[in-house]
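Anyone else keep sequences and structure tokens together like this?

Example one:
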Amino acid sequence: ATESPLGMYFYTDPAGLLRHPSQLYEAALEGLVLFIVMWSVRNKKWLKGKMLGLFLIGYSIARIIVEFFREPDAHIGFIFGPLTMGQLLSLIMVIVGVWIFVRKQEKPKKSNAPEKKKSSSKKKYTKK
């Protein structure tokens, strides 16, 4: 429940309390903000091949933030202290995103030039 001027009444809430419109927060963060970030860095050379990692990091951070405003599922509740199942799964997603981001380094480009054969310094003897 909230006393914020952004609070909304949900008809499915039996208590009839004002609630945060977490769906709107989620749409703003995971939709608009994440889109703007991804679109603004799409042509950065240092990010080439790392966009999936960046998306996973951004999405999961937005999800963790929004989960603080949502009421946890009644049958699950809080899992680890103040963290919900959604936040714990998002933490795993942050770790995976960071792993992808760090591991995805640009590989050196292979040259199309033919390889030179190494000459051996040993003399070859032939039978006469």
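And example two:
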Amino acid sequence: MDPTILIPLDGMRFAEQALPFAEALAQATAAPLLIVHTSEGARHTDDLKDQPEPGSYLERVVNPLRQRELVVLTTTASGEIVEAVTAAAKHYPIGLIVMTTRGRGPIGGSSTAQQLLAQLAVPVLLVREWHSPHFSSSLSTGARIIVPLDGSTLAEAAIPLAKKFGAALEAELILLRIIAPRMAWVPASSSGSELVRRQATAQRYLEAVATMLKREGIRATVEIAVGDASEGINAAVVRHNAALVILTTCGQNTSAMAGLGRVAKVVCWCGLVPIMLTRPPIMTETQFHEAVHAPPDGTLTVDPGSKLILLDRPQPAQPETPQPLFPYPHAC
């Protein structure tokens, strides 16, 4: 069975705002939809008598989708949404979860997305309540997708996912690097030259990534901005009229990586378009700190094993060739 796009619904209109976005991606990728209907939402509303019966509710939701020739599967569950989705993942190959979020509530809590990312290692597309359903029409052929990259191998975990949806949508990937105006350890007298140097390094890095993508038939352009990362991402969305942001989050089930990353949180809560979050494989704390910090200098190379753009960094002598930190064929 092809990987499915899963949408958790609880009978509340708020959760249904994810449906148009899931439908747009299903149309582009020819993936079946899997609707997981849970009764969790009923426990969080004061008007229980207005909760529809599962059968009639699913018919109302599913029939229009099937009339548009989409393959739609359904399953019902009781209990917490994370438990319901995890149970469904045991029976269906899940390629993407699409859900609404308001940062609180049964289906919209940030902890829900965090737990799903940690337990299933499946990308999650988060839709906010102000993302009007008509915005989903921009997830079509020729869409622009913002892919923030900071030069770290952690951020590069978003590249396979961006390639997948970039190809499906015939999209243009905007490879974005946001540079802080001044590093804390750089003297003020040297900040100008240091910024120019970092911009040049970032330019070489992004151009190398873009070249790799173009060889695989993916349209890609590069952009560098100076300022706050989350504000810079939202500004890029406006400049390019982008439809989607694809971002790596460091949220994992270890103490060093607990929670969604700061930038991912801000972009999610204040973002102008939906954000698709993915994470790299589980790492030790040492591996995480090595992956999250981009080296200050280096020559760009392509790792022939993983086909990833990496910055060379000084390495101690090793008895044998070290393995790539991220096994990218399995990253998403």
